[in-house]
Design brief:
The structure holds two protein chains of two kinds.
Chain A (H helix, E strand, L loop, with lengths): L1 H4 L2 E11 L7 E6 L20 E4 L9 H5 L5 E4 L2 E4 L9 H5 L5 E4 L1 E4 H9 L2 H7 L2 E6 L6 H13 L3 E6 L5 H7 L5 E5 L5 H8 L4 H12 L4 E6 L8 H14 L7 E4 L4 H8 L13 H9 L3
Parallel strand pairs in A: 2-8, 8-9, 9-10, 10-11, 11-12
Antiparallel strand pairs in A: 1-2, 1-7, 3-6, 4-5
Helix pairs in contact in A: 4-6
Chain B lengths: L2 H7 L3 H9 L2 H4 L5 H12 L5 H15 L30 H9 L11 H11 L4 H20 L9 H6 L9 H21 L6 H36 L3 H16 L8 H19 L7 E2 H4 L1 H9 L5 H16 L7 H6 L9 E4 L11 H12 L7 E5 L5 H12 L6 E4 H10 L4 H5 L2 E3 L3 E3 L10 E4 H8 L4 E2 L5 E2 L13 H33 L12 H4 L16 E5 L1 H17 L5 H9 L6 H9 L8 H19 L10 E2 L6 H7 L30 H10 L11 E4 L7 H17 L4 E6 L2 H9 L8 E3 L4 E3 L5 H9 L2 E2 L2
Parallel strand pairs in B: 1-2, 2-3, 3-4, 7-10, 10-11, 12-13, 12-16
Antiparallel strand pairs in B: 4-13, 5-6, 8-9, 14-15
Helix pairs in contact in B: 2-16, 4-5, 5-11, 6-7, 8-23, 10-11, 10-13, 11-12, 13-16, 16-18, 18-19, 19-31, 22-23, 25-27, 25-28
Classes of the chains: A alpha/beta, B alpha/beta.
Chain lengths: ~300, ~800
C-alpha cells in the first residue's frame, strides 16, 4: 500500500471542476506523454514524456531573470524579449521558477500518487453531489501504466468514480488491469481506416481497434469519441465508418458515440513550444456539425 | 410547441407597465408633498408628545397625499406622490437638502419653484430632525470627532449613513394583518387601553404609543378607501375590461387592510399597503416580506381551486407587485447615494425552506413567484431561496433557470446553517425553522427581530492604519488610530497580527458605542410606530419595536464589516514574503504600498504571487477564517442597547466600493482606491484562479455558523450554463456549499463581461440590465463607477 501511494508519475495539469470529461463534476488528471503525434493535438506540450518548457512571449516583460539563471545558456534576451534556444534547453525549469510575469512555465512535473490524490480528494463533496469523480487523461493516460493504475486503485479505495480518457494505443495487458478499476472509458478513435489513422497520428490503429473490442466484450461502459478535424476526418463517410465500426464490430449503440467539434485552442500552444508543425484550420459550422451528428441517430 | 415559452416571449403585463414608467427614474423631480403635509401637521401640534405628533402627521399624509393608479396596474399604493418621484423626509434629516438643491442638481432633479418652500421646511426641521437631534445630544465636539471617523473623514465607520437612512432590515409579520385586519389590531389596542392606569413613566409611554398607533391604523384605512374611491371614479370612463379590473381594485381596497383578506389579490394588496404605510411613516431600508410563498398560499390555493383566478392571473398580480416595489426611490444625500449605489432597497422575499415541522415547504406558489420574476424583469423585490437537502429538485432547477436570466436572483440561502445560528442565539426550533431573509442576507425571526441599522466598519482602512502606526496616509498622515508600532520595526508576523487586532478592537469599541447611542436616540426621537403593529409584544409593552417594545433582542445590532478578505490576503502576503521566504523586507512593502506600487512593480508581483483567499489554499484561507473568529468573539463580548449583543455580519451592500475608494494600496497587491472584496467570503476581484470548486472550498473553511449572514458572490459566464446538464452541476455546487459546508448564502451573476463593458459605454442601450451587487440586484446603469468596475472585475467562472 505504502509503495503504491509514493509511486511517482509525470503530470502536466490537474483540472478541477471539469464538467465535460465524464458524468458530473470531475477532477481531470492529465498525464504527460503520448505515443501518438496528432498534428491537431490540443495539448502538444504533453506529447513528450519528459517535461517541456512553454513560453508565452506576449507576457514577457524583458526583465532578463531567465537569462541570468539558465544553467545551459538557452535563454537570452533579444530586443528586450526572452528567446529560448530549444536545441540547448534541457527543460530544467530554472527560468520558469523565477519568471514573475509567468511567461515561462514547465509542462510536466513529477508527483506521487499521494500528492495527486490530495488534490483529487479536495472536491470529494462535489463528486458525491453530482455523480462525478476522477478522470485520467493526457497525453495518454495508459502511457504511464503503473502510475495510472495506482491512481485508479487509490480513487476506488476512496469510493471515487473513475473514468479513463484514452487513445487506445497500449498493451492489451494494461487495459485488462484497468477494466475492473474504471467506471467509464472515454475512447478516442481518430479514424477507422488504418492508413488514414497513420497519416494523421503517425501510428496505425490495429492495436487501438483490438483494445476497443476487448473493452466492449468485457462489457465496460464506453463512450467512443472522435475529434472532428477539418479536411481530415470530418466527412460524412468518416462518421458513417465510425458508426459502422461501433455498431457492427463492437456491438455498441451508436448513441455512445460523441463527436467533438474541432477546437482551435491547441494551435497557439504549438507556438509556445517553439514548434511550427501544428495545423491551422477553422472549426466546423453549426449546420455542418448538426448534420454529422444526425448521422448517428 | 412549449406554450409557456410562447407566453413568456410575449411581453407581460408587468413588463409593459415597467417599460412605460422606467424612464421617469432618470429625471422625476423630487416630491415635497409628504414634507409639506408633515410639516404643516407638526406646526399644528406644538407641545404634544412626539409620538402623538408623528401619528397626527402620518394621518395628514394618509388623508391628503396625492394618489394615482397607473394604466394596467392591479396593485395600488405608491412610494411617492407622483410616479417614480423621490419623496423627501425632513423629519429624518433635513439640512442637507438645501445644499443639494442649490449645489448638486446632478444628483437630484428639483422643481425650481419649490426651492423656497424647501428652504422653509428645512429651516423648520433644523432643530427637530432625527439627525439634528443626534447632533444636539452629542454636542459639537463629539460630532466633529465622529465625522473624522465617518464617510467624509477617514471612512472607518459609516456615521452619516447611521443617522440619515431609514432603519429596517427586518421582517414584519404581514400575515397578522392579512388574517385579522386593522380592526383586529385596534381591538387589541383597546383591550390594552381599557385597563390602563397611569402610575408610572412606562404606563404613560404605553398610553401615548397605543393612542398614536390607533390613530395611524385608522388613517391607513382612510388611505386604502381613497384608492377605492379613485378606482371607482376611473372605472366610469374605462374600457369594459379595465372597468372590471378597477372595480376589483376598489372592492379590494374597501376590504383590506381594514378587515381580514379573503382572496389572493386582497392578501397581496394588504401586504403592499402595510409595506408602503411603513414607508410613509419613517422611510426604511430592507424591510422585507418574509415567506411570501407560505403565508399567501392558502389564499392562492382557494382562489385557484374555486376558479376565481387562474395561475396566470396570480402571476400577473405578483408582476404588478414587483413593478410597484421597483418604483420606490431612495432620496439620499450624495455621501449615502455613493455608498448605497443603485438605490438599493433590499426588501427581500423568501421562498422555499422547511415548514415548522421540518418538511419541504415548496408549493405551487413558490414557482409562481419565480414565473413572475421571469416575466417582469425588474430588480425588486429580490428573491431568496431557503435551500435545504430535501428541497423539491424541480424547484431547485427552476431557480437555476431564473438565475440564468442574469438578474442576479434568486439568491440561495443555507437553511441548516441559518437554523443552527438562530438556535445558538436562543430562538426556539419553531421560530428558527420559520426564519426569513431580512434586508439582503440576514436570518431574521419574522415579527420578532427588531429594526436595525448596522455599524458599518472598513477593515481595509483599519489595516492601512496599522501599516502606518495609526496614521492615515491619505489624509496628510493625521493620527486617527491608536499607536500600534511602526511596521518596519516588526520582527515577527505575530507582532503585525497583534498590532492589527489592537487597532481593530479599538475601533470596534468606538463604533459599537456610537451604534448604541444612535439606536437609543433614534428610538426616542424617531419612533417607528406604524410597523410596530406587525411585531410581537409591542402592543403589550406599549413601545415601538426599535425601542423596548420587543422581547426578542437577538440580531438587532451588528457590525457590517468590509474588506476582511483583503486584510487576510495582506496578512498572508506579508507572512509569506517577509517573514517566511524573506524575499521582501517590511520596509520594501511599506514603501511600495505608500507609492501605490509605482516604481515598485517587482515588489507588486511578488506580493501578488503570494497565497490568496479563494484558491483552496489553506495558507490564506485559514488566516481569513481566523480574522472572522476574532470578530465573532470580540463582538459577542459587547453589549448593545435594550439587551442585545453584537454580532458580525459582513454583507457589504455596495459599501465595499466607497470603502475601497478611501483606502490606499494594500500589501495584498490591491491598488489604491479600488473596491474591496465584496461580501463575507467572496475572493478579491480576479484573485481566484483555481476554478469554482476551489473558491467554494475556501469559503467553506470559514466557520460561518456564528456569523449573522455571510454573503458570497460568484460570477459565471452565461455560456457555461446553457444545458440542463450544466444547470445540474450548478445545483451540485449549491448543494456542496450550502449543505456540506454549511455555507450561509451564495448568489450568481450570470452575465458576460462584454455586455457590462458595453453598458458602461452606452448606458442608454442597457437601461434594464440588472446585476447582483451584494445582497441585492440593481440596474447596472444606476451604479456608481467604482461598483460597476468591481462587478466587471470579479473573476468569471466557467462550469
Amino acid at each position: 500500500m505504502n509503495k503504491e501511494t509514493t509511486r511517482q508519475g509525470v503530470v502536466f495539469n490537474i483540472q478541477r471542476f471539469s464538467t465535460h470529461d465524464g458524468p458530473g463534476v470531475r477532477t481531470v488528471v492529465f498525464l504527460q506523454g503520448c505515443p501518438l503525434r496528432c498534428r491537431w493535438c490540443q495539448n502538444p506540450e504533453s506529447q513528450s514524456f519528459a517535461p517541456v518548457l512553454m513560453q508565452r512571449q506576449e507576457l514577457c516583460t524583458g526583465c532578463g531573470d531567465c537569462e541570468s539563471v539558465c544553467p545551459h545558456g538557452a535563454a537570452r534576451l533579444s530586443d528586450a524579449v526572452s528567446v529560448i534556444d530549444r536545441s540547448v534547453c534541457k527543460a530544467c525549469g530554472a527560468c520558469a521558477r523565477v519568471c514573475r510575469a509567468q511567461a515561462l512555465s514547465l509542462s510536466g512535473r513529477t508527483v506521487t500518487v499521494d500528492e495527486v490524490m490530495t488534490q483529487v480528494l479536495r472536491d470529494r463533496s462535489y463528486y458525491q453531489n453530482s455523480g462525478g469523480g476522477m478522470t485520467l487523461s493526457g497525453g495518454e493516460a495508459t502511457a504511464q501504466p503503473e502510475f495510472a493504475i495506482a491512481l485508479l486503485e487509490a480513487a476506488r479505495g476512496k469510493y471515487i468514480n473513475t473514468a479513463v480518457e484514452t487513445c487506445g494505443l497500449a498493451a492489451e495487458a494494461v487495459f485488462k488491469r484497468m477494466i475492473p478499476l474504471t467506471n467509464l472509458f472515454l475512447y478516442d478513435i481518430k479514424a477507422v481506416d488504418e492508413e488514414k489513422h497513420r497519416a494523421g497520428t503517425g501510428h496505425g490503429n490495429a492495436q487501438i481497434k483490438r483494445n476497443a473490442r476487448l473493452l466492449a466484450e468485457a462489457g465496460c461502459a464506453i463512450k467512443i469519441r472522435m475529434p472532428l478535424i477539418p479536411d481530415y476526418n470530418d466527412s460524412e463517410k468518416d462518421v458513417l465508418e465510425l458508426r459502422h465500426f461501433a455498431e457492427d464490430e463492437l456491438g455498441l449503440d451508436p448513441r455512445c458515440i460523441e463527436l467533438l467539434r474541432y477546437n482551435e485552442l491547441g494551435e497557439v500552444k504549438f507556438a509556445r513550444l517553439g514548434r511550427n508543425d501544428g495545423i491551422h484550420v477553422r472549426t466546423q459550422s453549426d449546420e455542418y456539425f448538426m448534420k454529422l451528428q444526425k448521422l448517428l441517430h | 410547441m412549449d406554450i409557456n415559452k410562447l407566453i413568456r416571449e410575449n411581453e407581460s403585463r408587468g413588463q409593459r407597465i415597467w417599460n412605460s414608467i422606467r424612464d421617469l427614474r432618470d429625471n422625476a423631480p423630487v416630491s415635497i408633498e409628504r414634507a409639506v403635509l408633515f410639516t404643516r401637521a407638526f406646526r399644528e401640534t406644538e407641545g404634544q408628545p412626539l409620538i402623538i405628533r408623528r401619528a397626527h402627521a402620518f394621518e395628514t399624509v394618509m388623508r391628503e397625499i396625492p394618489i394615482f393608479i397607473t394604466d394596467e396596474q392591479l396593485i395600488v399604493g405608491d412610494f411617492g406622490s407622483r410616479v417614480m418621484a423621490p419623496e423627501f423626509f425632513p423629519d429624518l434629516a433635513a439640512s442637507w437638502v438645501v445644499d443639494t438643491a442649490e449645489n448638486a442638481r446632478e444628483l437630484w432633479n428639483f422643481d425650481d419653484d419649490k426651492i423656497e418652500e424647501i428652504k422653509d421646511i428645512c429651516a423648520y426641521w433644523d432643530d427637530k430632525s432625527n439627525q439634528n437631534l443626534y447632533s444636539r445630544f452629542v454636542g459639537p465636539e463629539e460630532e466633529a470627532q465622529m465625522n473624522e471617523y465617518g464617510e467624509r473623514g477617514s471612512w472607518i465607520f459609516a456615521t452619516i449613513t447611521e443617522n440619515q437612512t431609514g432603519k429596517g432590515w427586518n421582517v414584519p409579520d404581514f400575515e397578522r394583518i392579512i388574517k385579522r385586519g386593522f380592526v383586529g389590531i385596534i381591538a387589541d389596542i383597546n383591550r390594552q387601553l381599557d385597563g390602563l392606569e397611569i402610575r408610572s413613566y412606562e404606563q404613560c409611554r404605553k398610553r401615548n404609543f397605543l393612542h398614536a398607533l390607533c390613530t395611524m391604523l385608522r388613517a391607513g384605512i382612510v388611505y386604502a378607501n381613497r384608492y377605492a374611491d379613485l378606482a371607482e371614479a376611473m372605472a366610469e370612463n374605462a374600457s369594459p375590461e379595465r372597468r372590471q379590473e378597477l372595480l376589483t381594485i376598489a372592492k379590494t381596497c374597501r376590504t383590506v387592510p381594514e378587515n381580514p383578506a379573503e382572496t389572493f389579490q386582497e392578501a397581496l394588496q394588504c401586504v403592499h399597503l402595510c409595506h408602503i404605510m411603513t414607508f410613509w411613516d419613517t422611510f426604511f431600508t430592507g424591510v422585507s416580506f418574509g415567506r411570501v410563498d407560505q403565508y399567501l398560499y392558502p389564499y392562492y390555493r382557494r382562489d385557484v381551486d374555486c376558479g376565481l383566478i387562474d395561475r396566470d392571473y396570480a402571476t400577473q398580480l405578483i408582476e404588478c407587485f414587483r413593478v410597484k416595489q421597483s418604483s420606490k426611490r431612495n432620496f439620499f444625500n450624495g455621501t449615502i447615494k455613493k455608498a448605497l449605489s443603485g438605490e438599493t432597497h433590499m426588501h427581500n422575499a423568501t421562498l422555499g425552506g422547511v415548514t415548522v415541522q421540518g418538511q419541504d415547504a415548496v408549493n405551487e406558489l413558490s414557482f409562481v413567484w419565480l414565473d413572475a420574476a421571469e416575466r417582469a424583469m425588474v430588480a425588486h423585490p429580490t428573491l431568496s431561496i431557503r435551500w435545504h437537502e430535501r428541497m423539491d429538485f424541480d424547484f431547485v432547477m427552476r431557480g437555476i433557470e431564473v438565475c440564468r436570466l442574469g438578474l442576479g436572483f434568486p439568491a440561495w440561502f443555507g437553511d441548516t446553517g441559518a437554523i443552527e445560528y438562530l438556535l445558538s442565539r436562543g430562538a426556539t426550533l419553531s421560530e428558527a425553522r420559520d426564519w426569513a431573509v431580512g434586508g439582503c442576507v440576514l436570518h431574521t425571526l419574522v415579527g420578532k427581530t427588531p429594526s436595525t441599522i448596522p455599524c458599518v466598519m472598513n477593515l481595509g482602512k483599519i489595516f492601512e492604519l496599522t501599516m502606518n502606526n495609526g496614521r492615515d496616509p491619505l489624509r496628510k498622515n493625521i493620527q486617527i488610530g491608536i499607536k500600534t508600532g511602526e511596521p518596519e520595526d516588526f520582527e515577527s508576523y505575530e507582532q503585525l497580527e497583534k498590532a492589527y487586532t489592537a487597532q481593530l478592537d479599538h475601533f470596534i469599541e468606538l463604533g459599537t458605542r456610537h451604534n448604541n447611542q444612535v439606536r437609543v436616540l433614534r428610538a426616542q426621537n424617531f419612533p417607528e410606530t406604524f410597523v410596530s403593529c406587525m411585531f410581537d409584544d409591542c402592543i403589550e409593552n406599549g413601545d415601538t419595536i426599535m425601542g423596548t417594545g420587543g422581547r426578542c433582542q437577538i440580531n438587532c445590532q451588528y457590525l457590517l464589516t468590509g474588506g476582511c478578505v483583503d486584510v487576510g490576503n495582506s496578512l498572508a502576503a506579508i507572512k509569506k514574503c517577509v517573514f517566511e521566504d524573506k524575499s521582501l523586507t517590511m520596509r520594501q512593502v511599506c514603501q511600495a504600498v505608500a507609492a501605490d506600487f509605482k516604481g515598485f512593480e517587482d515588489v507588486h508581483s511578488v506580493l501578488c504571487a503570494a497565497p490568496k483567499f479563494g484558491n483552496d489554499d489553506d495558507y490564506a484561507d485559514y488566516i481569513v477564517a481566523g480574522l472572522y473568529e476574532h470578530l465573532v468573539e470580540k463582538l459577542d463580548s459587547i453589549e448593545g442597547a435594550f439587551g442585545a449583543r453584537f454580532v458580525e455580519s459582513p454583507h457589504s451592500l455596495s459599501w465595499h466600493g466607497s470603502m475601497g475608494n478611501s483606502v490606499g494600496a494594500l500589501p495584498s497587491g490591491r491598488r489604491a482606491h479600488a473596491a474591496l472584496a465584496d461580501g463575507a467570503v467572496s475572493p478579491c476581484q480576479g484573485t481566484d484562479v483555481s476554478g469554482p470548486s476551489a473558491t467554494i472550498n475556501s469559503a467553506g473553511k470559514v466557520n460561518q455558523t456564528p456569523i449573522f449572514g455571510a454573503l458570497f458572490n460568484m460570477k459565471i459566464l452565461p455560456s457555461s450554463l446553457k444545458t440542463d446538464e450544466d444547470a445540474q452541476k450548478l445545483a451540485a455546487l449549491i448543494r456542496t456549499y450550502l449543505g456540506d459546508y454549511r455555507g450561509k448564502h451564495i448568489q450568481f451573476n450570470v452575465v458576460d463581461r462584454q455586455v457590462l463593458l458595453d453598458a458602461q459605454k452606452h448606458p442608454g442601450r442597457h437601461k434594464n440590465l440588472i446585476v447582483r451587487v451584494a445582497g441585492y440586484s440593481a440596474l447596472f446603469v444606476e451604479l456608481n463607477e467604482t461598483i460597476q468596475q468591481e462587478v466587471i472585475e470579479r473573476t468569471a467562472h466557467t462550469l
